[in-house]
């Protein structure tokens, strides 16, 4: 047995802004410079990825989507958003470590 969890970032009204999938998408956009390429690499539809990025942009800003098609467009993720991703991953790692400790206690019960 083990403890498990999901973690996400909410706005002040309790609406989800960014979760694990969005973090993965943004990291892939940072790596590729492209929503299209990121969506392809993560096996997501371009429409889904584009709408998710627009939602994140409208809530927290820091994502510049450049139109232009092949070799002309691209997406840039600001330092602010990259710092947010880092904080998210730090929180995930910390919560995972705590739950791993308590999962071990569960499994030590005889």
Structure write-up:
The structure is a single chain. It is elongated, with a radius of gyration of 17 Å. It has 110 residues and is mainly alpha-helical. β1 and β2 form a beta hairpin. The protein has helices at residues 20-32, 35-41, 46-60, 79-108; strands at residues 9-10, 16-18, 63-66, 74-77. It contains four helices and four strands, in the order ββαααββα. A two-stranded antiparallel sheet has the order 1-2. It has a two-stranded antiparallel ribbon with strand order 3-4. The longest helix is centred in the C-terminal third of the chain and has 30 residues, at 79-108. It has a single domain (16-108), classed as Winged helix-like DNA-binding domain superfamily/Winged helix DNA-binding domain (Arc Repressor Mutant, subunit A). The model has no long low-confidence stretch (mean pLDDT 92). α1 crosses α2 and α2 (35-41) crosses α3.
Task: Please give the structural blueprint.
Layout (H helix, E strand, L loop, with lengths): L8 E2 L5 E3 L1 H13 L2 H7 L4 H15 L2 E4 L7 E4 L1 H30 L2
Antiparallel strand pairs: 1-2, 3-4
Helix pairs in contact: 1-2, 2-3
Structural class: mainly alpha
- What is the string of helix and strand elements? EEHHHEEH
CATH class: Mainly Alpha
- Percent of residues in helices: 55-70%
Cα-to-Cα separation, first versus last residue:
13 Å
Inertia-based shape:
elongated
> Could you name the ranges where pLDDT drops below 50 across 5 or more consecutive residues?
none
Radius of gyration from the CA trace? 17 Å
Approximate strand percentage: 5-15%
CATH superfamily placement: Winged helix-like DNA-binding domain superfamily/Winged helix DNA-binding domain
Helix run count: 4
Number of strands: 4
**Strands of the largest sheet, in order across it?**
1-2
Q: What is the CATH topology?
A: Arc Repressor Mutant, subunit A
Number of domains: 1
Major sheet attributes: 2 strands, antiparallel
* Average pLDDT number: 92
Q: Do you know the CATH architecture? A: Orthogonal Bundle
Protein name: Molybdenum transport protein ModA-related protein
């Amino acid at each position: 047995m083990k403890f498990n969890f999901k973690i996400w970032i909410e706005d002040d009204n309790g609406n989800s802004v960014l979760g694990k999938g969005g973090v993965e998408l943004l990291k892939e956009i940072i790596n590729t410079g492209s929503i299209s390429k990121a969506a392809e690499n993560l096996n997501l539809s371009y429409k889904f990825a584009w709408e998710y990025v627009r939602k994140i942009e409208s809530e927290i800003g820091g994502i510049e989507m450049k139109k232009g098609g092949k070799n002309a467009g691209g997406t840039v993720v600001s330092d602010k958003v990259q710092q947010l991703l880092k904080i998210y991953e730090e929180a995930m790692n910390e919560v995972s470590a705590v739950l791993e400790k308590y999962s071990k206690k569960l499994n030590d019960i005889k």
